[in-house]
Amino acid sequence: MPELPEVEALAHHLRTHAIGRTVARVDIASLSVLKTYSPQWTELHGREVTAVSRHGKHLDLVCADLHFIVHLARAGWLRWSDTLAAAPPKQGRGPLALRMHLGPPGEGPGFDLTEAGTKKGLAVWLVHDPTEVASIARLGPDALTVDRAGLGVLLQGRTERLKWLLTDQSVLAGVGNAYSDEVLHLARLSPFAVAGKLAEEAVDRLHEALHEILTDAVRRSVGQDAARLKGEKRSGLRVHARTGLPCPVCADTVREVSFADKAFQYCATCQTGGKPLADRRLSRLIK
């Protein structure tokens, strides 16, 4: 799933290549991707891209007074091309969901929004104000910019386990499954630690790790070609998706906890005093 660093890198790419260009045409290959019906998507035609921003894990392409908002969900992606095919795509065929031409079709550049797999979550909104999108309106502070004092306030009185709090977008915007694993590993904290019971020194470590992991990931991602971002993300991970491999810090085996259709990874030596987490519902490791 694209998280804050990858979405920030995509936003940077669009700022560099899309701002100042005019939307010539938008092709819809999957009607289910559109989550708003007014304004109609055809109102984008002829509008200039004036800015590109990010709200948590949402992309915001500003076209005059309209905001073209994209949430890539779990398997969505943005693929830029210097020249897009002129013929409109057929609906319901393949992973293509939407195509935006930023120049004469068949001659100018633009991008495709695609989504792999059968579980569809890619979403697009066309609104006058980003806060009209419910998932943006309820976002917490951005994980890349929250300061130590702000993080401390967010944690006060919270009864959630750290793993779940870090990925709750209404608490902290931008962090998902992968980077929460990385942050907790660097901070030497158990995924099952109760957020509101952390000592001040532990909150210090958490904030330092949050800032270091995200800043480094953004630094490595920004400027990369969009097609290379997924590989760049994987290359920088220490524990996430590395089950069975040695921890890069202590060489202990990276372990996994699975639940529903997700899983997270951690190092028992670095994070839980050497004790494995058996199951999120059964483990007693909450400190």
Automatic annotation (TrEMBL):
Q: Does the keyword Metal-binding apply?
A: yes
Please state every residue range assigned to the domain named Formamidopyrimidine-DNA glycosylase catalytic. Answer: 2-93
Name this protein carries in UniProt: Formamidopyrimidine-DNA glycosylase
Alphabetically list the UniProt keywords. Answer: DNA damage, DNA repair, DNA-binding, Glycosidase, Hydrolase, Lyase, Metal-binding, Multifunctional enzyme, Zinc, Zinc-finger
Question: Per the UniProt entry, what species is this protein from, by scientific name?
Answer: Tamaricihabitans halophyticus
Which family would the database say this protein is a member of?
Answer: Belongs to the FPG family.
> Which residues are in the FPG-type domain?
238-272
Query: Which GO biological process entries does UniProt record here?
Result: base-excision repair
Q: Can you name one GO molecular function term for this protein?
A: damaged DNA binding
According to UniProt, the reaction catalysed is: Hydrolysis of DNA containing ring-opened 7-methylguanine residues, releasing 2,6-diamino-4-hydroxy-5-(N-methyl)formamidopyrimidine
Tell whether DNA-binding is among the UniProt keywords.
yes
- SMART domains from the UniProt entry: Fapy_DNA_glyco, H2TH
Q: What Pfam families would the database entry show?
A: Fapy_DNA_glyco, H2TH
